[in-house]
Amino acid sequence: MADPKREELQVKEKKAILAAVISPSSHINKEQALDELRGLVETAGVKVVGTLVQSREHPHPATCLGKGKLAELKQMVKHVDAELIVFDNNLSPSQGRNIEEETGTVIVDRSELILDIFATHAKTYEAKLQVELAQLLYFRPRLKRLWTHLERIEGGVGAGRGPGEKQLETDRRLLDKRVSELKRKLSEVERRRERTVSHRFEHLTVSLVGYTNAGKSTLMNALTGADVYIADKLFATLDTRTRRWELPNWGEILLSDTVGFVRDLPHHLVASFRSTLEEARQADLLLHVVDSSNPEVEHHIKTVYQVLDEIGIDHQDAILVFNKTDKIEDRSKLDVLRLKYDNAISVSAVSGEGLDRLTQTVIDRLASGYAIVEIDTPVGNGKLLSQLEDHSLILSREYSSDDSRVTLQARIARRFLPLLKLNEETELKIQGEEETFVADRVPEETVNKL
Ligand SMILES: Nc1nc2c(ncn2[C@@H]2O[C@H](COP(=O)(O)OP(=O)(O)OP(=O)(O)O)[C@@H](O)[C@H]2O)c(=O)[nH]1
Ligand SMILES: [Mg+2]
């Protein structure tokens, strides 16, 4: 298939009009809606040359905008010479087709725009598969519109069943075949990922999440220093956006970057990115990066909270990071924000301000969930030893002179303590705490000690 959607969405450097129908009762006001859309459109490399907003209880079923507004839009297209109209609403296939026919201009709706941005930004094999799948699922019911559009520009509008109609059937078949192929490839990738998870037990993982353009990748570079991907080193199948991060007095952990979030993510996209965001869900700690210089900052925070909730991550557990403090001229604005979100850390990934404090906070948070234990046990205690291999980071190992006993120092998540298989001949001591546990299970209370 000659991938018509790609041509259609080659929107780089084009001139666009932004349009939206907003219900008077919506919590999003006119300015907010278009500001965000403008940000997205500019991210896609499109120039905004005009805007049009209609306040309407419900979008018109056939054309989204009402008749009068649609005529106004048509005039505006001529006047500003727009090549593209971007709707903040998501349009049904027929709405898109109707507006396209009426205005003679390419129409892109919110989901298409986001899909396009994701497609441009997808770097890893898996992300590329995910975006392509989401795009195909989104475009399948809209193929007819694409062909109508192509026929119109070629001037080849035939009566009745034109070449587009036949082409349409062929395209649908090819598209369905490709969809199955993508699903198969994705499940292969997922299976491979599952196999690597056990290797990652020893490494704590911190994930960066946040609104698009918040500065996650910049922060990742600033924190990890070296610009080295670890993909072809230890974990061959790891996503290439995971890097080693050396924490002072703690050791090495993994820091991973994730896709940026936006309001109203197309649901196909959320579904197919679930597995990528699975990384974030499995992380030991999340850093929620925010562009604190953006006037929409609070909306961005809310959006990220929503997406996190949607994929089953408790947003309360994330450390909020106010980035780009160097860009804020009026510091009192930052103070107001900090009062509202009192646990946030202010940093600038560019100037380096606040990074030490962030690092220390990460160490403290990681440490609070972990204990250093010293365990003395017979070498024959295979159950316990294999538990420790799987669920702790072994810091040192010493054998008695007759090789019958082993003393291990290990860092272990407190939630694993009560699960350890101790026996009469085993002694466990938690560093910094008085009690020594022999034979008994470590009681549940120790989990919440700190
Ligand atoms: N002034 C300033 N600019 C920053 C800072 N951090 C990031 N930026 C800029 O913000 C822009 C976006 O940064 P990225 O690191 O790509 O943002 P991201 O969150 O990874 O974005 P996505 O990958 O699109 O989700 C870039 O132009 C950065 O140079 C900062 O602390 N100060
Ligand atoms: Mg990034």
Automatic annotation (TrEMBL):
Cofactor(s) for this UniProt protein: Mg(2+)
Coiled coil: 165-199
Key words of the record: Coiled coil, Cytoplasm, GTP-binding, Magnesium, Metal-binding, Nucleotide-binding
Residue span(s) of domain Hflx-type G: 204-370
SUPFAM superfamilies reported for this sequence: P-loop containing nucleoside triphosphate hydrolases
A GO molecular-function annotation: GTPase activity
Binding site for Mg(2+): S217, T237
Organism superkingdom: Bacteria
Subcellular location field: Cytoplasm
CDD domains: HflX
Matches recorded under PROSITE patterns: G_HFLX
GO CC, one annotated term: cytoplasm
List of residues binding GTP: 210-217, 235-239, 257-260, 323-326
Entry similarity comment: Belongs to the TRAFAC class OBG-HflX-like GTPase superfamily. HflX GTPase family.
PANTHER family from the UniProt entry: GTP-BINDING PROTEIN 6-RELATED, GTP-BINDING PROTEIN HFLX
Subunit structure: Monomer. Associates with the 50S ribosomal subunit.
Chain's role: GTPase that associates with the 50S ribosomal subunit and may have a role during protein synthesis or ribosome biogenesis.
UniProt-recorded name of the protein: GTPase HflX
Gene field: hflX
